[in-house]
Amino acid sequence: MKFIKRILLGSLLVIASLVSMPKAEAKGYDAWSFYEWVKVKYPAQRTDAQKAIDILNQYANYHKRGDMRDSTSIQNMKKSIDLIKEGNKLMLSDNRKKNKKSWTISHQAMAIAMTSAATTEDDHTHNFNVWENLAWGYMDNNPYRAWYYGEKKALENGEKDRQKIGHYLNIIDENTQVTGLAISTLPKTHLGIIHSQIWGIKGQLGQDFSINNYESMLNTYIKEKNIKIDPDEKESDFSDQLSESGTSLHHLDDNHVTEKKQNIYYYKKIDLDALYYATK
After folding, report:
1. Contact status, residue 64 vs residue 97, Cβ threshold 8 Å
2. pLDDT tens for each residue of 97-110
3. Is residue 147 classed as helix, strand or coil in its secondary structure?
4. φ, ψ of residue 57 in degrees (nearest 5)
5. Which end of the chain is more exposed for a tag (fewer CB within 10 A), N or C?
6. Could you tell me which of 44, 194, 40, 192 has the C-alpha nearest to residue 114?
7. What is the Cα 173 distance to its own chain's centre?
8. CB 247 within 8 A of CB 136
9. Separation in Å, CA 219 to CA 39, 170, 222, 232, 241
10. How far is Cα 189 from Cα 69, in angstroms, rounded to an integer?
11. DSSP codes, 108-137
12. Quick one: which of 171, 152, 180 has its CA closest to 250?
């Protein structure tokens, strides 16, 4: 991994420097406060909301509470749901997806994704037993350019090696039902913006909600607390063009590996036109 880090450092250092200066979010409003609010507002969700808090607390030292760039900021939670909606559309429209059923979101899944985005540097941390896609350096907030468009194109061009199309296969996997996604732009590494999307099977990650219902819940919280979302943030431009820079990594934990699924990591640096692989 040290060799990979040295190669990536030069090409991604400029990207990391483009991350905006820290902005303070409304005091006391972040994922922790959202889940505390859920516990009171929706008593039936109290247990799951507390489990989400417990997940965040376990890795609290990796977060920077109150910083809008942190994966737990309300700003980034809003962006994350937008990305989930886009990924869900891609999944549902894919001709290889047999079970045309929308993803759902759970509090625990979101907390796991936030933790993953906060704790990872350039590899999977294996803290949770979930499917996971990771990406670094996609400053347009569009990891699906590599996860979906790039790898789907590779598959259509005849690529069969899961190590080269694993992100895409995770997205259309019949078992990846409940999801969470997080974004962090904290400059804790030279890699810049980090995206983490995780999935679990139905019932694995607590009570789940439709994407629209989860978004509505978050919006209700934002409205009640009068949280101001940065109006300067631009919507992501999703297209079938590959990003000219960025790194992506996918993972299947041991319990999710079948005879047809290899337990591998995938490193892809598009602008270097190079692939890096590592196995357990």
Report:
1. no
2. 988 899 999 999 99
3. helix
4. -65, -35
5. C
6. 194
7. 16
8. yes
9. 16, 29, 5, 18, 31
10. 13
11. HHHHHHHHHHHH-SSS----SSSEEEEEE-
12. 171
Q: The dihedral of CA 145, 153, 120, 31: what is its sign?
A: positive
pLDDT tens track for 233-274: 443 333 333 333 444 444 433 333 222 233 222 223 322 222
User: Which residues, 6+ apart, have CB-to-CB distance to 111 below 8 Å?
Assistant: 31, 35, 51, 52, 53, 55, 56, 180
Place of tokens 């980034």: 76
Query: Mean pLDDT: which of 58-67, 70-79, 226-235, 257-266 is highest?
Result: 70-79
Which residue is it, tokens 């700003």? 75
Count of other CB atoms within 10 angstroms of residue 116: 31
DSSP 25: P
DSSP 8-state secondary structure symbol assigned to residue 271: G
Which residues contact residue 114 at a Cβ distance below 8 angstroms, ignoring those fewer than 6 apart?
A: 31, 56, 63, 71, 72, 180, 182, 196
247-280 burial string, b = 16+ CB within 10 Å, else e? Answer: bbbbbbeeebeeeeeeebbbbbbbeeeeebeeee
- Comparing CA positions, the residue from 255, 148, 249, 135 lying closest to residue 201 is 255
